[in-house]
Amino acid sequence: MWSAKVFLILACILHSHSVLSIWTCTEDTECSLPQGSVCEAGMCVCPAGNQLVLGGTACAAAAPYLTSTCRDDLQCSNLLTSFQCRREEDETEGQCDCQPGFHYFVGRCWKSADYGEVCERSEECLGALRDPYNMACDEGRCTCAEGYYERQRGECRKAGYAVGDGCILDEDCKFTNGACNPSTFTCVNSASPTTFTPTIKMKTNATSSSGSLSRSHGNACSASSPCPEPFLCSAFGACVCARGYYPNTAGTQCLAELGSPSTEAQCTGFMAVVQDGVCGCPANVYFDENMRDCVKATRRITDSCVTDPMCHTFGAASICGPPDEDNWYIRSCECVPEQAVWDSERNMCRLFAGIGESCQVNSDCLAGTQEITCELNELGQGVCTCPVDTVNIDGLCLTSGLSLGEACQMTQECTETEHTVCEEGRCSCSAGYEERDDMCLPTIGSPCLEDAECVVNNTVCLNAGGTSTCQCSAAFLEYGETCWPRLSHHTQSCNVSLQCTEYLGSGSNCTNATCQCFEDHHFRDDRCWPKTGLFEPCSRSSECYLGELTDRVQCRNSLCQCSFYFPYSEAHHTCAGPDGMVSIPGGSGSSVAVSSIFTIVAALLYVLLH
Ligand SMILES: *[C@@H]1O[C@H](CO)[C@@H](O)[C@H](O)[C@H]1NC(C)=O
Ligand SMILES: *[C@@H]1O[C@H](CO)[C@@H](O)[C@H](O)[C@H]1NC(C)=O
Ligand SMILES: *[C@@H]1O[C@H](CO)[C@@H](O)[C@H](O)[C@H]1NC(C)=O
Ligand SMILES: *[C@@H]1O[C@H](CO)[C@@H](O)[C@H](O)[C@H]1NC(C)=O
Ligand SMILES: *[C@@H]1O[C@H](CO)[C@@H](O)[C@H](O)[C@H]1NC(C)=O
Q: Which range of residues forms the domain containing residue 472?
């Protein structure tokens, strides 16, 4: 469709003297390309605040912020690097976001690195516990940032070191008798008789001095007519907020994203607070992916939840469970059973320890089908240990000598039966082998030593090019891992088209269990040939076709022609019978008089006169 338009444009260029004249317009209605364009100074251009998208065929509003509506990746370029227009399949519109494996923070997309992973800058460190400040890049790896403690493998939480510091759980208050006050979410001294009352900051309604009274966001602007503070004029000629900020719904002012310098009035996201002049989330409250709101944290594992991040108070291996049918379909937090177990003493989903890691009780050790136990080492410390008769390979306790059908973890354990692999937790025949009598025997194409091994019906062990493999025997054809009999007559029933093409040629297939010539082919001399009519080029008589009179045509001088005994009848464009009649076999009248008697008479006269 649009290639046609390009062609049209090229044609216009060839026919016009000035390229500019293609776009000349006098009013908006004349501008159909790019779609949505307007007429400005005689040219069809995108309106202010819009940009060209979809290969220059349409105009769309520029999408300067994370979560802005977009149609084309290009629109999201304000996120600087690794951005995309994230769409559901089949949707034309999506939202600006970072590409998978990247996350947004203060105006751009960063490559995401989890705890212990390689990093170059602290901005890259972000784990399942979404807090851009809880990890820092230290000596090229993401580790817990200063002021954060590692509660368990890879989980960094903000530590409260004094009365009044923010907290969610008692464990966050890292001083003697420290506890978390559940109504103020601040650390208190549980032994102190005088309870600490924090000064609760009242959120006053935004009566901002920076910000216009009427909508300015999106208004057209230029170098000569700039935007009112704090808006900036974008490259597409519209007023936008600076990177790290987004407009309020009224479009009158710019609000701070989480992580951007901010006043109280600009930091308006759900639960967002200003700390050290930056808009952020309270201690151990996680950041929403939109980087505007904070995620409400749960305090008890039984608390109701809506999303997984709400449960991350209990660690990365916690999720918001399925709706509880017996309790008004309310969802509550739970541990991921494959990764962790609920530890009520420490109030968290305790990750299983791997083989060789320290433990206190058997249940600390990695879950799985095998009984992994916590054994004391020489120093009296508990270590997760593989059961006897198994060896620790890459953190798995592996055995050996398993035969076909036995439960396994890795292929190297399946040693008892030849040609087996560990698949879906069982020793099974590897590709190219089929199970038969507790053995794995070669299928078509797999190596063999003798015919008896070849498990597929009608296969034999054939030596070709130095190696012996199972192949269909001579009277059979291979198709779909099966050997099918070669046909000896075209009326024999078939199962696959290969049987027909071997016998009748490529113009045939197996339809309704019988070999059929294709519509544009005909059956002659035991094969299907392309239908070749009178006076059409041919290479052999079998190709020549004349419906029910096909036996009257032959290939002469590379053209299909009537054979000697059946003269050509021009009037009927067919080959006449030897009696000069065009007989239609099976026809009711059986014969029709030929008007070309005249032709014969003329021929006779010709002979007589010369
Ligand atoms: C703040 O604004 C909300 C809604 O705009 C209003 O209901 C509320 O009364 C306001 N509060 C103050 C203290 O002005
Ligand atoms: C193989 O041949 C045997 C005996 O002719 C028959 O019973 C069996 O069903 C065949 N197997 C397959 C897969 O066709
Ligand atoms: C092959 O076709 C015949 C005749 O239609 C049928 O009886 C037979 O079951 C088919 N064989 C296979 C393996 O499908
Ligand atoms: C195949 O068989 C079906 C049902 O018997 C019939 O409707 C169909 O026309 C047949 N197709 C051909 C190509 O003969
Ligand atoms: C055989 O060929 C015809 C067309 O030539 C096609 O319509 C039909 O689906 C084919 N049948 C099979 C079984 O491939």
A: 442-502
